[in-house]
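FIELD: query
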Amino acid sequence: MPTKREGVKRMVVGALLFFLLAPAIFVGALWFGISRTVDTIDDAQRLKPGESVQLDAGEQVKLFIFDGITTGGDGATAGSDQTPSPVQCTATGPDGQPVDLRTSSGKSVSNDGQRWQESYELTAGPAGAYRVTCGTSEVLVLDSDFVKNLATKVGGTLLLAIVLPFLVGMTGLGLFIWGIVKYTSNKPPPVQPGYATGGYPPPSGYYPPQQPTQPPIEHREGPHDD
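FIELD: result
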């Protein structure tokens, strides 16, 4: 029947949305958001002690100091519990004069099993090479705008990975339940007992009493029968 087939179709579509599409969106959104962050970190310049970074006039960068080995995956974290590295850093401009470094904290990044802690912000004066020294530690240089928007990007990725699959999954679940209702509500009605042609059905629950069966009357010969 058409209604029964429609119920089956809704159940199939709902199951696909709930069990396949929603999880796929969740994994895809996480992968897309994390991969963009990791790619930016991969492209960041790493400075060994005493090396220089080329900056444009007025450009701002964040200096992340190497903070050890990590067993977690690549990515970034942000929070008030992230404190600057205790390592002291100095910087000199293209003219060899010292450049002020402003303490900065709140984020850390991980890449290739290495953890880097946000510690300083450097604002370039004239364009040129800026030499950075942080003791014997290596330094990861990231654009300030990228770092400032890092929390928003991570939050947006998590929001997309949770809300969109939830909506798709609930839609699929609703279709699946609707299909079950359609399928089960299309059962054929129970068969009623038949009645004699031209007759009328007895009232509900009433059946006429059975008449006792009379035995056949035997023919007896009388006294005048020959």
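FIELD: remark
The first strand starts at residue 45 and ends at 47.
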